[in-house]
Amino acid sequence: MSETSILPNEAAHFGAMAADWWDPDGASAMLHRLNPVRLSYVRDRCDQHWALDECALRPLTGKRALDVGCGAGLLCEPLARLGATVTGVDAAPELIAAATTHAEARGLAIDYRALGVEGLEGQFDLITAMEVVEHVADPAAFVRSLAERMAPGGLLVMSTPNRTGLSKLLTITVAEGLGRIPRGTHDYDKFIAPDALGEMVRGAGLKVIDCEGIAFSPTKGLHLSEDLRLNYLMTAVRK
């Protein structure tokens, strides 16, 4: 097992994007478009898992949430607004600095730390790792580290590009080729198919309870779908 999930070149690549991370038209524009889709899915999974009131404004009050590979806080901030006590970790110190500044300016108390998940103590009710597993040194070891930090009755939600020709075309050839995503963000050889990720999750002692796609169309944009070919979200609990 790798001692750390962090790949220094990956941390440097994303750290260089820190200055305009919160600019919806900047280098992270695609994440801004993706974030509402991911948040909708996370909210629905939480509502179902804990039988929460789907109309409640702060349904995660009393829950501890951890976002791994949090960037500058695009998902951490709405989780905090939903009532969770949020910790965000990322390998890039520049992103943690940007996240801290942005949250403080909005009166949000989020515990941001510049480290890999392996260096974090404690357990969490909700753990999210969005578009991260394809950027780590050892994906299976990374998933085990996530599982080790799940509290009893906890929930894990991950997302990642699928290992398909369509995903390579739209994510790398088109999105990176046209400058929608910074060049070098993705390596197709590190993309993971749902079956492979499911094996890692089960190997970590967890049970996959849901898998849903994120698809794209000119009319809907990015949206939740049964089509897993582009990108997908996976939810797991303890067996």
Q: Can you walk me through this structure?
A:
The longest helix is centred in the N-terminal third of the chain and has 22 residues, at 29-50. α4 (93-105) links the parallel β2 (85-90) and β3 (111-114). The chain has seven helices and eight strands. With 239 residues, it is α/β, with parallel strands linked by helices. Helix content is 34%, strand content 25%. It has one domain (8-238): Rossmann fold, CATH 3.40.50. The model has no long low-confidence stretch (mean pLDDT 95). The protein has helices at 8-15, 29-50, 76-81, 93-105, 139-148, 165-176, 194-203, and strands at 64-68, 85-90, 111-114, 124-130, 150-161, 206-217, 221-225, 231-238. α5 (139-148) crosses α7. An eight-stranded mixed beta sheet has the order 3-2-1-4-5-8-6-7.
Short description:
This protein is α/β, with parallel strands linked by helices and 239 residues long. The protein is 34% helix and 25% strand. Strands 3-2-1-4-5-8-6-7 form an eight-stranded mixed beta sheet.
Number of beta-strand segments: 8
Mean pLDDT: 95
CATH fold node name: Rossmann fold
Helix/strand-derived class?
alpha/beta
Globally, the shape reads globular
Top CATH class: Alpha Beta
Helix content: 25-40%
The low-confidence runs, each spanning 5 or more residues with pLDDT under 50, are none
Distance between the termini: 23 Å
One letter per element, helices H and strands E, the order comes to HHEHEHEEHEHHEEE
Counting DSSP H or I runs of 4 or more residues, the number of helices is 7
Radius of gyration: 16 Å
Strand neighbour order, sheet with most strands: 3-2-1-4-5-8-6-7
User: Could you give me the name of the CATH homologous superfamily?
Assistant: Vaccinia Virus protein VP39
How many domains is the backbone divided into?
Answer: 1
| Biggest sheet statistics | 8 strands, mixed
